[in-house]
Specification:
Largest sheet of chain B: 6 strands, mixed
Shape of chain B: globular
Bound molecules: adenosine-5'-triphosphate, magnesium ion
Oligomer: heterodimer
Radius of gyration of chain A: 30 Å
Number of strands of chain A: 17
Radius of gyration of chain B: 22 Å
CATH class of the largest domain in chain B: Alpha Beta
Number of strands of chain B: 17
Shape of chain A: globular
Number of domains of chain A: 3
Structural class of chain A: alpha+beta
CATH topology of the largest domain in chain A: Ribosomal Protein S5, domain 2
Number of domains of chain B: 2
CATH architecture of the largest domain in chain A: 2-Layer Sandwich
């Protein structure tokens, strides 16, 4: 069990860990090493974090509420996916007083076995995800217990957990309080229920209830926004949210298959630092340095092992115990020089462009969507992959700067945008090339949503609070490339839309004057106006059709590509929705059936032309009926609610 | 209708225009409409061809000393976004003219504009944005049909006044221009033979002044009586009626034409139009231009010669300077040393002067001293 040792209170005898951190002058203030030693003792992590709760995202009441929901929902999604269950998650926030809220999160996951409950929810740094290198939302084993601890500290109320692991199993209801000084849980009460169908109709799942001091407010960085964005990044999950005012929001799933399971990988030698290497050497069960390298790392074959050892001037049969600091450093240096294959990338499970589009369609009421995914790449020995999605036009506000939705391993990042590599890659991209306006060092403007998703077994966050992705050159480059690919398609679309407008203007002009001309001609020649009118109307039609045809010929490649591109969706009925006022219906270009279903179809403006929502290409599905139905799925997208 | 026999072929074609009968003009319009109908029913692109009225299609005939229109035409297609509206207007006004001819009535340009003005059904667009739009199209129709405005039964607003020892018969009414009081005879828009006929004339020359205010000064001082001349005025750029009248006074009655205009690029331009014709109406030059017209003043040297005060100076702006240089480059001015000198001097002065500036000397200075002195000295520009 890792513990934190205060540097100030370090054990004097442990020279290795605290060398150089000793108080330098012995007597200036009169306390001796002996005297100080009496005050030196181990600090429970829970004590440490209780004092430093901002490190875990509990800086203020509003953020505390978001963090609590987020930790629980992330856990539920992780658990469901690991158990191969399509997630169904309910979040309920009840208001007990002005500043006190009661948050309940329930899932249909595998449940937690009875004996683990108090550890999972009662101890910090206790979890299943820390000791492995595998793509998941949680990593540290702190999340949910920290939320419970925050609740307890601010309200004195214990955490209530109900969990059921299967149809034949009883449901356990456990009420527990964390003892921060010991980083252990005290059970307040526990009850066993034979049935709990009303909570877990599928026979399994977990429900957590935490009471805490908080503030509920919609808008940016709210629980609502977190859920909306989580729904976008997890189209295979459905969510229900009951807000303090008892309104209910539902997000139906739009993809019926679970994402493939991420493979666990061993660390890549290039991805570790010297300290970690030394720690691994100390802990390994391997006997010789050669077998250690081969077994604890990926991509280290016998020949690579030999190369490393030769370079480090260490025999690969040297027993582990004889590897000291100097040898470790030599090996570390060798690793940086010797040729080693890039890490495998099957540990990465991106959403994929189809699911990404499907997610965007679910949450953003735009007219044009494009997505692109980069091949996997590596930063500092860690494999990662970038995918992006763009949504443009429709009902998105035209005057505002683009909205950037940032995700890491399917978790939305709501804070510290400007510190994030995703943000930097957006302002680094030249959006003007795609027909958007953009001022220096800022995001493009006008009806655009940019979604950037990074997946990695180890996401490099800038801080413990997991709010921004660190700005590695490799990551930024991949992000930019992905944005450019999706951006180019948007550019093609915008050009084409402008051209269509122009063509319609043309047709309009001709049709407008034909009536006048045919009447005047009747006055001059006596030929019935109708005859001339009909002929000219036919002529106008073929004229503009010809024009359309010409366009096709000129821009053949372009047009065909957009229509047939699996990574593009155009929703005809939403085109120009933001400028509804005078947009003639003729503006709507003919579009092939959309490739991804959308949860709520906009009211079509031209019934004859609107295309029925077709099944998604990947996993055809009608939105799965959600358990409790009181209100319809949210009609609005990201920009309708809570702003 | 009594028209002068033309002297050359081009003039013949043009002069014959005024002899056209209504039936001929009507036939031209019907042909235009029938062509559009034919093209429409055959489902080919309807178009009308209109001779191009632009500088590029105008040339200076040095022998005849006037501007002539070339043969270039402009095709106006219905199925061209830039031309569709003009196409519609052309057909609309053609129909309006046909209606006028058939009804045997005449209408002012403004009247015609209103007759054809309405909102296009189902839109908020009007058939014409203003009278200028309609006037321009009517000029196109004139040229396209090789007809004159009067053939189309149209006339312009009266602008221009005449007084002097001459009797005219206007639409059958005898008018003695010696007895016109302070107002003078309003020169009609249509001054064709048949409409306006000349009777007894004692005048020895015509003095044409730029505007009404100057004209009034001369009339009040009975200048025309003392000097035995006809006094005309054209409200700035003289309209076609005034130009046609001057042309006829010059050609039929052999009266020399002297012009008293401002000393500024606009005054020079008016003279140029009276003398050589305008780009816009180049197709009528042979009926309107008077290559022998003379420019009496105001001259750039008059500031010193007449000892005028600083008060009369009006500074030349950039636009004026640019215009002056353009005018100096006109082919009919470019070889004329005196004109080049005149424009150079004005530019050197850096200011322009109006005819009225002479009033600062004395109220009758211009009528009693300036013009008589110029005429006596035969001091003018050709
Ligand atoms: N809803 C749940 N269903 C099943 N298991 C759960 C659930 N919530 C938590 N767990 C288990 O409890 C462990 C601890 O959760 P916790 O949120 O404290 O840490 P974590 O998710 O591993 O890491 P992080 O601190 O990054 O969130 C998880 O690793 C998981 O094994
Ligand atoms: Mg967690």
């Amino acid at each position: 069990m890792p513990t934190l040792v205060s540097s100030k209170d370090a054990d004097v005898s442990d020279a290795k860990a605290t060398a150089g951190k000793q108080p330098e002058s012995r007597k200036p203030r009169g306390s001796t090493a002996e005297e100080m030693a009496s005050g030196q003792r181990e600090i429970a992590v829970s004590e440490f974090f209780a004092k430093n709760r901002h490190l875990l995202g509990f800086d203020n009441p509003r953020k505390a509420l978001l963090t609590t929901v987020k930790e629980a929902v992330d856990n539920s999604l992780d658990a469901c996916e690991e158990a191969g269950i399509l997630p169904e998650i309910t979040v309920e926030i009840g208001q007990k007083s002005e500043t006190r809220f009661r948050v309940t999160i329930r899932d249909n996951g595998p449940g937690i076995v009875r004996r683990q409950i108090e550890h999972v929810f009662g101890r910090l740094l206790y979890g299943s995800k820390f000791h492995r290198l595998k793509m998941s939302r949680g990593q540290q084993g702190i999340g949910i217990s920290a939320a419970g601890m925050y609740g307890l500290m601010t309200t004195g109320q214990p955490v209530v957990i109900v969990s059921k692991t299967g149809k034949q199993q009883p449901a356990h209801e456990v009420i527990l309080k964390m003892d921060t000084s010991k980083n252990r849980a005290d059970i307040v009460k526990e009850t066993e229920h034979a049935e709990m169908d009303e909570l877990f109709p599928q026979g399994h799942g977990t429900q957590v209830t935490i009471e805490l001091e908080a503030r509920y407010q919609k808008g940016r960085q709210s629980v609502d926004e977190y859920l909306e964005q989580t729904a976008i990044a997890n189209p295979h999950a459905c969510f229900a949210f009951i807000a303090p005012d008892a309104t209910r929001l539902e997000f139906q799933r739009s993809v019926k298959e679970l994402p493939p399971e991420a493979k666990e990988i061993k660390p890549h030698p290039r991805g570790i630092e010297l300290g970690t290497l030394i720690q691994m050497i100390e802990r390994t069960e391997c006997r010789a340095i050669g077998s250690f390298l081969q077994e604890e790392f990926c991509r280290v074959s016998p020949s690579v092992t030999r190369a490393i050892c030769d370079h480090a001037k260490v025999k690969n049969t040297t027993t582990i115990g004889r590897i000291g600091h100097a040898e470790a450093e030599a090996i570390f240096k060798a690793i940086q020089v010797v040729k080693i294959m890039a890490p495998p990338t099957d540990c990465l499970v991106p959403m994929g462009t189809k699911a990404l589009l499907s997610g965007l369609l679910r949450g953003v009421r735009a007219e044009f969507f494009s997505a692109s995914m980069r091949p996997a790449d590596v930063y500092r020995g860690n494999p990662f992959q970038i995918e992006v999605g763009l949504a443009y036009g429709g009902e998105l506000p035209k005057e505002e700067p683009a909205r950037i939705l940032r995700f890491a391993n399917r978790v939305p990042l709501l804070y510290q945008q400007s510190a994030c590599c995703s943000w930097k890659s957006v302002i680094d991209t030249n959006w003007r090339a795609y027909g958007l306006s953009q001022s220096r060092d800022s995001a493009p403007e006008g009806g655009l949503v940019v979604m950037i998703h990074m997946v990695s077994a180890w996401v490099p966050f800038t801080s413990e609070s997991k709010e921004a992705i660190a700005d590695y050159d490799e990551i930024r480059k991949e992000m930019k490339l992905a944005l450019q690919e999706a951006g180019r398609k948007l550019g093609i679309y915008l050009k084409r839309r402008a051209r269509m407008r122009h063509e319609t203007d043309r047709r309009d002009i001709f049709e407008r004057y034909i009536g006048e001309i045919s009447k005047a001609c009747e006055g001059i020649t006596g030929t019935p106006a109708k005859k001339v009118f009909d002929a000219l109307t036919r002529l106008a039609k073929t004229k503009t059709e010809q024009a359309d045809q010409d366009l096709d010929d000129e821009g053949n490649v372009v047009e065909k590509k957009l229509e047939q591109d699996d990574n593009v969706v155009i929703l005809a009925e939403r085109i120009g929705a933001a400028e509804q006022a005078e947009a003639p219906t003729d503006l709507i270009p003919e579009v092939r059936p959309t490739k991804v279903s959308r949860p709520a179809a906009a009211k079509p403006k031209t019934p004859k032309r609107s295309t029925p929502p077709a099944a998604p290409a990947q996993t055809p599905t009608v939105p799965a009926p959600f358990r409790v139905k009181e209100r319809k799925a949210p009609e609005g997208g990201l920009f309708e609610e809570g702003k | 209708m009594a028209a002068k026999k033309p002297t050359d072929s081009r003039g013949a074609a043009r002069s014959a225009l005024s002899e056209r009968t209504d039936a001929q003009t009507r036939k031209g319009i019907v042909e235009l409409g029938a062509r559009v109908v034919r093209q429409s029913l055959a489902e080919t692109d309807p178009f009308v061809d209109v001779p191009l009225r632009s500088l590029s299609n105008t040339s200076f005939n040095a022998r005849k000393r006037l501007l002539e229109m070339g043969d270039s035409t402009q095709r106006r297609n219905l199925f061209n976004t830039a031309q569709a509206r003009k196409f519609m207007q052309t057909v609309l006004l053609s129909k309006g003219c046909k209606d006028l001819i058939e009804a045997g009535k005449t209408l002012s340009l403004r009247g015609m504009y209103y007759m054809s003005l309405h909102t296009i059904p189902g839109t908020r667009e009007k058939t014409f944005e203003g009278q200028e739009e309609s006037d321009g199209i009517l000029e196109d129709i004139e040229v396209a049909l090789e007809a004159l405005r009067e053939n189309l039964h149209l006339f312009a607003k009266k602008r221009g006044t005449m007084v002097g020892p001459i009797t005219v018969r206007d639409n059958g009414d005898e008018i003695d221009c010696r007895r016109m009081g302070t107002g003078g005879y309003a020169i009609p828009s249509i001054c064709e033979p048949g409409v306006v006929e000349f009777g007894k004339c004692d005048a020895k020359f015509v003095l044409h002044v730029e505007k009404d205010t100057v004209w009034s000064r001369f009339n009040e001082d009975r200048f025309w009586e003392k000097h035995n001349c006809i006094l005309t005025e054209g409200s700035g750029q003289p309209p076609r009626g005034v130009r046609r009248l001057l042309w006829r006074l010059h050609h039929e009655l052999k009266l020399p034409i002297y012009c008293l205009l401002d000393c500024d690029p606009w005054g020079h331009y008016i003279f140029s139009v009276i003398k050589q014709g305008s780009i816009n109406l180049a197709f009528e030059s042979s009926r309107l231009a008077i290559p022998d017209a003379k420019f009496l003043g105001i001259r750039a040297e008059d500031y010193e010669r007449c000892e005028l005060t600083d008060d009369v100076k009006i500074e030349l702006n950039d636009r004026d300077i640019e215009r002056a240089k353009q005018i100096a480059g006109y082919p009919w001015f470019v070889d004329k040393k005196p004109w080049q000198k005149e424009i150079q001097r004005m530019l050197r002065n850096g200011f322009k002067m109006e005819v009225e500036s002479l009033i600062t000397k004395d109220i009758s200075y211009v009528t009693e001293e300036y013009v008589p002195a110029r005429l006596k000295a035969r001091d003018w520009l050709e």
